[in-house]
């Protein structure tokens, strides 16, 4: 560079000397020749100066250009890696006091430090502030993802506005054994689970799953699919893909095993968390498989000593994503699992079949009352409470505007109209016929089911605040039986004292004609115990009705009854008025006939429909005093 500068200067000096030493010219031509020489000199100077200036600029630019990769590496010097430990084992001393950080990263590290304070209020405030951070750089979210403790991670997963970059992708899954498949691994896991502490139904599910999976494996190796054995009556209810069908048998059995705490330990020790995650990813397009997997993880999350293993395996990240799903069932399953993991703000435990529809995330909104939804025969926690089916919603595979159509109106409509309510929906297995029962050995009476549900609801904290019960069909009989059972147990007195009222949608208080058709016409082969108990001449049903009416009058419960006026098709042949007006008359509260059939009595056509608006009015009026306090 110095040589180039010297050469340019020398050139300029030579030019000047040539001008100065030139021989004298004739006077007549001197002015024009001088002008020509001046132009040459000026042009040379301008050209040389331009080249010199351009070179200097380019050299300066090259010398100050930043290597962005170096900058990123400098930023990542503050990126730390920690071993996952239990939230209650985190030491309270100043962990971050010696970290060298830039000024713009102070907020990140201060919030991390705050999230580990001894004060619970400070920790909750830190999680709230983290969830509201939407202006950070990617590397700052990665810092939180790597450095936060499990308690903070779960809190972020349950925060509605949390950025997804807070959650690291699940760790790599271990490779399958040589000459093994996911189906074989699942079968091996099921076979390794203990056969102790299990009832006849669980034995049935386990033997059925092992039998069907062994037939499937043999057929695959032979190049054929086989649907023989006990699985034939159930194949239509599980799916169309053969492999998914077989694995559904195994998953159903594992779901039952996961309801036993000691069996959850065996599932975790056998690599079940990783295997279930592999299945979850493999069957992204099979919602039934994914829901059963989430049921298992939700059951395992009831055991607090398994929380570190669940977090380490990456399930919190998966559930955080599922919680934001537009599909209400998927989001509700994820919400149940995360609530069972969140021991910072949730003291209740949600067992299998108990789903919180609202609130599903952490909220500052105080919850002042509970509303419970109990479905009836052949119903479910979500589909029973969907909006009246519209042709567009059934034929178009699109995300429908929830204001126009909802697959669960308590979650979509009631939660917005009454945000201070905790809304719970309960699910349990029922059947019209023992021939189509999921478990042929299962004979669960209304009394048995009521005790089972009562135990689950108490674990969920039902009874600790004012309650309204909403039920459809046989679900109303379960509500009546539960309240009568609770009234006989002093430890459940709070549940009775906090019950404010109930809504019955076509509940057969005096029996149903469905039982008569099952027995006389034999359309339903081998009617189930649930159906038999609905007979008009059932002594148990009459005693339940008489005892409850006396009890409800004594407690001054508020009651609202709806009843269908249209018959319902059962299959393609029979058209039956399942619950006539006289059977739906409890003898207490208003009785409102609605021009719909038995299935649609709890499915409003729109949010403005009388059926929903009258339900909303009853809830608001019955809980008026509690919601004001």
Would you mind describing this structure in some detail?
The chain has 629 residues and is an alpha/beta fold. It has 27 helices and nine strands. It has helices spanning 2-20, 30-64, 68-75, 106-114, 120-131, 138-147, 150-157, 182-192, 200-221, 242-258, 261-269, 272-282, 287-300, 307-312, 315-323, 328-341, 391-395, 409-417, 446-459, 474-487, 493-498, 513-520, 529-532, 539-555, 581-584, 610-622, 624-628, and strands at residues 354-358, 369-374, 421-426, 467-472, 499-505, 558-564, 568-570, 574-576, 590-594. The strands form two sheets. It has a seven-stranded mixed sheet with strand order 1-3-2-4-5-6-9, sandwiched between helices. Helix 7 packs parallel to helix 15 (315-323), helix 8 packs antiparallel against helix 9 and helix 13 (287-300) runs parallel beside helix 16. It is elongated. The N and C termini lie far apart (84 Å). The relative contact order is 0.06. Residues 1-6, 10-14, 19-28, 76-96, 222-242, 391-399 and 519-526 have low confidence and may be disordered.
Topology:
Blueprint: H1 2-20, H2 30-64, H3 68-75, H4 106-114, H5 120-131, H6 138-147, H7 150-157, H8 182-192, H9 200-221, H10 242-258, H11 261-269, H12 272-282, H13 287-300, H14 307-312, H15 315-323, H16 328-341, E1 354-358, E2 369-374, H17 391-395, H18 409-417, E3 421-426, H19 446-459, E4 467-472, H20 474-487, H21 493-498, E5 499-505, H22 513-520, H23 529-532, H24 539-555, E6 558-564, E7 568-570, E8 574-576, H25 581-584, E9 590-594, H26 610-622, H27 624-628
Parallel strand pairs: 2-3, 2-4, 4-5, 5-6, 6-9
Antiparallel strand pairs: 1-3, 7-8
Organism: Cricetulus griseus
Family: Belongs to the SERAC1 family.
Main location: endoplasmic reticulum
